[in-house]
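CO-FOLDING WORKSHEET

Operator: S.A.
Ligand of interest: zinc ion
Run index: 431
Mode: holo prediction, single chain
Checklist:
[x] sequence pasted
[x] SMILES validated
[ ] output reviewed
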Amino acid sequence: MSIAKVFAEADKASKEVAELTSGLVKFNSAHPEGRTDEIVSYIAEYLDKYGIEHEVHVTDPKKPNIVAKLPGKSNHKILWVGHIDVVPEGKSEAWKYPAYQGIIKDGIVHGRGSSDMKGSDAAAMVSARILSKMRLPHPVEFWFTSDEEIGGGAGAKWLAESGRLKGEVCVIGDGNGGGAENPSIDLGCKGGAQTRLIAKGKTAHGSTPFLGDNAITKLIKVIPEVYKIGNYKLALPEDLNKPVRDSIKFYIGEANTPELKKAVRRLFNYPTVTCNIINGGVKINVVPDYAEAEFDIRLTPGASVSAVKNEIEKIVKAAGVPGVEIAASTETHARGSGKLADQAGFYESPDTVFAKQFSKTIKKATGKRPGMKILTGGTDGISTSKIAGIPSLGYGTSISGVAHQPNEYITVENLVLGVRIYGAFPYFYKP
Ligand SMILES: [Zn+2]
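OUTPUT RECEIVED:
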């Protein structure tokens, strides 16, 4: 009864959710500034219009967070979390429609953030509006956060660390839920084993290099060695076997060359590794005595970060280049950006009651049984799950392959589906 009502209300809200998405896109909340103060006022205005209680939580005044609070009969609180910041639009020539005009055309909303993830935010706002007129079995909080694209320092990470995120289960609105065709739940996301390789040598005048010991020369000998970690087969917990197979199936559908398909087949059973920063040298006529390289290494959650780190140590030692070693993980970052933090991922087992009930919700909303996958990149789920300790599952309205790209868009169909799912879940949740 209530579920049917949510679905009916959601289906009537296609114009509203498209316009809200467009409205949110019009605020440029791109990093490096990542300003979200005006968006938060926009969301507050919407909530006020429907008499929905809300609070703003701020640690950085330019990057506030807002929560909509709906009362329920039980004390089993459900959270929904989504971010309102976006990545920069890049070159404006690459966009067919301007990045921040939120053009709505032929059932599609265009613009930066439409898919990642202001569309899901709009869907959550409409869900809150629909639910505010109903009797809810459980209290629900919809959190709209800042700073996700740069790690959540003023957003979810801070909210979790300061004890503001409290609930029994959490739905993350980020990510690509596969729409009605290929629905899928995000069980979690990969984590990192970020690694810094440092080379020390001896300086000398550039005209007499034989008197020195060139740190750059040594570093570049070892960099290709570190890539060997990409062949280290990860040991994964058993309950991840099926999600890993499902994830590969999901991503392989998006891979359109044999090379990409091959990469996807390895994507969860081996680490990915890429050297993304190299630093070294001070002047053209000075033999460098120091150089460093940083590797972004990503692992399926459940894999042992320390086992991978030990393996990298072994590889570097075996390379046998004196003065080249892995920086200790506690060592402060050379450029002062703090420590190379523990970035292990997280996942929820697909066998939990929460996962089953969320799966049921999506099946009812789409008519298809959803697959379950691991996201390759991080979300606010890292904070809600690992810091706040709340089981977190994701379903996002995003279109696959458009996040962080020019010509980002979202279909109104996906937005309505988001309203159906976020709105209905409280009625499926039975703790
Ligand atoms: Zn996102």
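REVIEW:
The two ends are 20 Å apart (CA to CA).
The pocket of zinc ion is lined by residues 83, 116-117, 148, 174 (CB under 6 Å).
[x] output reviewed
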